[in-house]
Amino acid sequence: MNLDHLVYATPDLAGTVADLRERGIDVVPGGPHPGRGTRNHLTGLGDGAYLEVIGPDPEQEAPDGPRWFGIDDLTGPRLAAWAIRVPDLAAALERTRAAGYPFGDARPMSRRRPDGVLLSWSLAFPADDGEVVPFLIDWQDSPHPGESLPAGASLVSLTGVHPDPGLVAGPLAAVDAALTVVTGPAPRLEAVLATPGGEVVLR
């Protein structure tokens, strides 16, 4: 499994960033997502993975549709998704469809880092159980964000919760995602991070 990043979505980006910093997680500005109405802050988690904190961008107009990860309906931050890095998104999508677990179409994305470097990538979301089944991301020729991030925390564990773990076993296997999934009332994720001040749980 090539974990790319965790997505911590919030309706109040500034407030959530301040809270994480108080809890010992050093997050730094990432940049806006033009046309999506969002921007992010990031921190490294070790082994090339990172944590993305994403929320509404007050400097952008409201997007035509809802913001991704259910941000418009949130009342507080939540660990909304996770991503697997793939070297060839088109080939990965072909494999998952052949296995009977389709993902949506590839979507091009971009943002400009604070230092002016333009990052471009493509991603695709699973058709079902998107909170437990990861989405796929291909960074193409862009530098990976994890290469320039502070080591704000380290990932101790990532666990999925689902009413019927057997339903997500096939899709997880199709993308080589070795995620432990336990039984619970509703699909969700839980991550345990190690920081200099102790462990922090995000869910």
Automatic annotation (TrEMBL):
Per UniProt, residues of the VOC domain are: 2-138
Name this protein carries in UniProt? Glyoxalase-like protein
Source organism:
Amycolatopsis thermoflava
| Organism taxonomic ancestry | Bacteria, Bacillati, Actinomycetota, Actinomycetes, Pseudonocardiales
